[in-house]
Write a structure and sequence with these properties.
By secondary structure, the protein is an alpha+beta fold. It has helices at 10-19, 24-45, 48-74, 80-106, 111-132, 136-156, 160-202, 212-221, 239-246, 248-266, 290-305, 330-346; strands spanning 229-237, 271-276, 279-284, 308-310, 313-315, 318-326. The radius of gyration is 32 Å and the shape is elongated. The relative contact order is 0.08.
Length: 362
Amino acid sequence: MTLRFEAESREIHRLLVAELGHTVIPAMLMGVALVGVGVATWHEVGDRAILLIGLAGGAAALAKLIVIAHQRRAGAGVNPACRELAHAITTYMMAASVAMLSAALVIRPDPGCYLAAMAVLFGYCCGLIGRLSIRPWIAAMALLIAMLPVAVASALIPGAPHRMTAVILALFFLNGLENVRHVHGAAVRQLAMRLDLARLARNDPLTGLLNRLGLREAFDRRGAGRTPVAIHCLDLDGFKSVNDRHGHAAGDAVLIEVAERLRAAAGAGATIARLGGDEFVIVCRDIAGEDAARALANRMLQALRVPFAAGDAVVRLGASVGYVVGAGELDDLLQMADDASYRAKRAGGGMVGVPMTLAGHA
């Protein structure tokens, strides 16, 4: 039997580890169950060892609740790998408590103790598969820790029913591993689809640049409305003829190359978006004023003057750029930069529009 778990991206791993913070009720109920069974068995048969094991299980559950509380309080500030390790340790502590309690109950001659052992073991394992399969290496190891001692204890007790119990536990373990694989794979695929949809909602699918929604969220997230920024609006000159003469596939290739050149010209700190067609917007926070904004506009124009490959042909394009330097609402800044770009296009294209600095914010 070969198990292959679904591959995870870093973002999916972070989201799955974050889900471990939503296991408060299962951990609390399992802790209560372990303590309750330990106390009840001690009261009925006077076995102090079983009482101590039950209390140890309650302490393990409490440790897990502390880990969950710390995770919720710290938010995203904790390394996911460290957070996952803490969950693994406390989960293994609980699994060991379940194993010792169930094994101690199984070897007692009282049928009631045997039934209690199976109830504790199967209840824990079913909950484990349902809630912790999102971290398969934790779930698989916890299943092994919880079930192996009970299976061994059952196999060592004389009698066919006990040996049959050991076989059933082994089969349940294998089935549990398969369920862990299935639940984890489904969770990974669902999250991957959700992240893909989120990217499609915020990014231009052709160039990978932000779209209008993504640009607005990036602008708001960085607090750009409160600090001066430079916004450049850029329209390609002559792009329509590329589609008309060489086809849309060639036009798409040109747009992809335009996006790459704008990234290189604007630098890593810039936010670049394609708002549709051949219209691009570049937002830069680290701009020292109009001179720096004009220099960036010239760099972009120079980058776009280099010929483009359009299928088997080579085409030359120009661009009209308008920019504004200042602080304010995104829509207002875009409108000013777009007006400047339009004036540049009316002047013949390939020119930097008149800068429009917001008063008091330069």
